[in-house]
Design a protein that fits this description.
By secondary structure, this protein is α+β, with helices and mostly antiparallel strands. The chain has 24 helices and 23 strands. Helix content is 44%, strand content 16%. The strands form 6 sheets. Strands 11, 12, 13, 15, 16, 19 and 20 form a 7-stranded antiparallel β-sheet that branches. A hairpin with a 2-residue loop joins strand 12 and strand 13.
């Protein structure tokens, strides 16, 4: 039953977007803005799961080296999980485009199944599926919001939930929980809308049955328990993690609901994504939500069917017809946001229900885009249209009216051409890809979303990034790191943050000390630079060998590198050439195991025949140490110091120890290294 509608929706998509399908293997079906962000999402989920063997909701590949939580980001991991399989035999471009086409075709199919369940009208339901999936709302977000394009599981969940509450069973309970999980893995907004309409369905049937506890009666408790447990096991962890995370730390980038609300006239006037949008530009150009949010017109043909079906409600034998009208009114009213807007102007004197619900249900504030509730309006309208067309098909003149309405519908739903994006990788990205190691990159010249796309090519971690909602702490740490670059503290950025490569203008402006950078590429416009100091053979490591750490007097220490050489790989001594190594680095970490705190002061102590040279160190961010010992205070247990060989006697070997002041500085203890540091002795 579903094969023909699926094929039909695929053909209609190709026709409405032609010649886009001819670029299937060469161009992303998305714009160069948020569209490329979603390309990165697919790449990252695949890399996290298949290569790094971790969950994708946190990454250090953005906002490196601190990393960032992706809980508040529009990650839509469901599409990423689809991509894992598709990327085995398709390119990233083809994988992304398959997901777009899948969402349009399967979105139509699930809306068809939902409509058919209520109307039993095959052709009416085929039309309903087309109205839902080819709506202006859907094409509006197809330009860059892949998470919102993925609306295909909403109708299926509502269908299963209607079946469940009418006749609860364990099988349907499990299916409903799994589909609801698919919804949240596509988009948080859609999950919230499904929860709301699910509650509305229960209340609606409770009123009809005149039994508010009907789901708790005999025979219902076991399936209901299975559903609740299923939701807690699937969607629950993600919901709880998001709520806890948003409560613990402010998220930057949340849309103000006043700016992204539904204008009262928007459902009735063709928006900016209509093929002939120039005819209505006088209206949609005034809307505050922007063209990628405000283009949500329903269409005159659909509005006619809504009025017609209501007029014929006595003849249309659909049990829940009134419910769908109520759902349309409710979500449209909520979509108007906290302040009523008419023709782009706010009418603050009229209170709106969204503001009330925002106070009653605080998590609603995380969403910030009331206009997106129009997806539920379009779904309700499509179901009612199926009933309306069913009624027309039964009348002699009705078929002619239906044909006329379909012709009007076709022209109303003609979208403007979808963007096709192709960004060839410049030569410096290819060079960056071939550079060894996984050192961080600071990119000061590339547009943020293009920067994400380039990362899918060179696959090196980058400072900064472009995510939907940024934790405030991640933003602040990233600003501090970028300030190091702007002030020319490249050595500190390299040693303390493992940032090695810089992409900037060929002659960096507003960056001090850039003459010390080693150019790797320069075309007169763009420059790729190596920030690593030229003194010594520098070998970077990901972390210490925990088996080789030294424990003395309740303290722990480890030396990571001396002159960039791995301390654990040195045979019996560290050799320094005073002529060649004008300045060399010593890096490591040390903690006071008694006070469970980072060392309050760490000093390097060099001894030779009673002579003692004490050199202070600077603190260094070491989250890996804190993670290993599970002590949050150890995040700044790292230390680093720049040592000048001119202070030491040549041809001498100094015994090295690390001196740690206890909290308060009243006492100290020393941890001895097991290898001397020798000067003027060739390696």
């Amino acid at each position: 039953m579903g094969a023909f509608p699926t094929l039909l929706y695929y053909i209609i998509f190709c026709v409405l977007t032609f010649p886009l399908i001819l670029k299937f293997s060469t161009h992303f079906f998305a714009d160069g803005g948020d569209g490329l962000q979603n390309v990165w999402n697919i790449w990252w989920v695949n890399k996290a799961v298949t290569e790094l063997h971790q969950l994708p909701w946190r990454t250090t590949y953005l906002y490196y080296p601190f990393g960032i939580s992706l809980l508040g980001h529009t990650l839509n991991p469901f599409n990423g999980f689809m991509g894992i399989g598709l990327l085995r035999f398709l390119t990233l471009v083809e994988t992304h485009n398959v997901i777009v086409i899948f969402s349009f075709t399967i979105g139509g199919l699930t809306a068809f199944l939902l409509s058919y369940h209520f109307t039993k009208s095959y052709w009416g339901s085929v039309i309903a599926g087309g109205i839902f999936t080819f709506s202006n709302y859907h094409f509006t977000h197809a330009e860059g919001h892949l998470q919102l394009v993925s609306l295909e599981w909403i109708p299926l969940f509502i269908l299963l939930w209607f079946i469940f509450v009418r006749k609860p069973s364990v099988t349907v309970a499990i299916s409903s929980a799994l589909v609801l999980c698919a919804v949240i893995l596509c988009d948080y907004y859609y999950f919230l809308y499904c929860v709301i309409i699910g509650f509305m369905i229960v209340v609606w049937l409770a009123i009809r049955k005149k039994d508010p506890l009907f789901l708790f009666r005999k025979g219902c408790m076991a399936p209901l328990s299975v559903f609740i447990i299923g939701v807690l096991m699937t969607s629950g962890p993600l919901v709880f993690s998001l709520l806890r995370f948003s409560a613990r730390e402010p998220l930057l980038g949340i849309h103000p609901p006043e700016e992204v609300s539904l204008d009262l006239l928007a459902p009735f006037i063709y928006g900016a994504h209509w093929r002939f949008a120039y005819l209505t530009q006088l209206y949609w150009s005034k809307l505050t939500a922007g063209v990628n949010e405000s283009s949500v017109h329903i269409g005159i043909s659909v509005l006619f069917m809504l009025l017609y079906a209501w007029k014929k409600r006595g003849d249309i034998q659909i049990e829940s017809l009134r419910f769908w009208y109520f759902a349309i009114i409710f979500f449209a009213a909520m979509g108007l946001g906290p302040v009523l807007q008419i023709w782009g102007r706010a009418v603050a004197s009229i209170p709106m229900p969204y503001a009330f619900f925002e106070k009653v249900f605080p998590p609603l504030r995380i969403s910030g885009c009331p206009v997106r509730m129009m997806v539920m309006v379009m779904l309700g309208a499509s179901v009612i249209c199926a009933a309306g067309f069913q009624s027309l098909f039964k009348q002699k003149q009705g078929k002619k009216i239906a044909a006329l309405l379909l012709i009007i519908l076709f022209f109303e739903y003609l979208p403007r051409p979808l963007p096709a994006t192709r960004i060839p990788a410049p030569q410096y990205i290819s060079i960056l890809k071939d550079l060894p190691g996984a050192d961080g990159v600071v990119d000061l010249i590339t547009f943020p979303t293009v920067k994400l796309y380039f990362q899918t090519i060179h696959e090196k971690p980058i400072a900064s990034g472009y995510v939907s909602r940024i934790p405030k702490s991640s933003y602040e740490m990233d600003i501090a790191l970028l300030e190091l670059i702007r002030t020319g503290e490249f050595e500190k950025a390299y040693f303390d943050y493992n940032i090695r490569y810089l992409l900037s203008e060929a002659v960096p402006k507003n960056i001090g000390g850039y003459s010390s950078l080693k150019p790797l590429y320069n075309d007169g416009r763009v420059g790729l630079f190596d920030m690593a100091p030229s003194t010594g053979e520098l070998i970077k490591i990901a972390g210490p060998d925990w088996r080789e750490m030294i424990r003395v007097n309740g303290g722990l220490m480890y030396i990571d590198t001396i002159k960039g050489q791995l301390y654990g790989q040195l045979k019996d001594k560290a050799n320094i050439d005073p002529v060649k190594d004008k300045l060399f680095k010593i890096d490591g970490w040390a903690v006071d195991d008694n006070s469970k705190d980072s060392g309050q002061g760490v000093y390097l102590v060099f001894r030779y025949r009673g002579e003692e040279i004490i050199i202070p160190t600077k603190r260094k961010y070491r989250p890996d140490v804190a993670k290993h010992f599970k002590v949050e205070g150890y995040t700044e247990s790292g230390w680093t110091s720049s040592v000048k060989p001119e202070r030491f006697n040549k041809s001498c070997c100094y015994n090295l120890s690390v001196r740690i002041l206890r909290a308060g500085g009243s006492e100290y203890y020393e941890l001895d290294a097991d290898k001397p540091v020798c000067f003027d002795i060739k390696p």
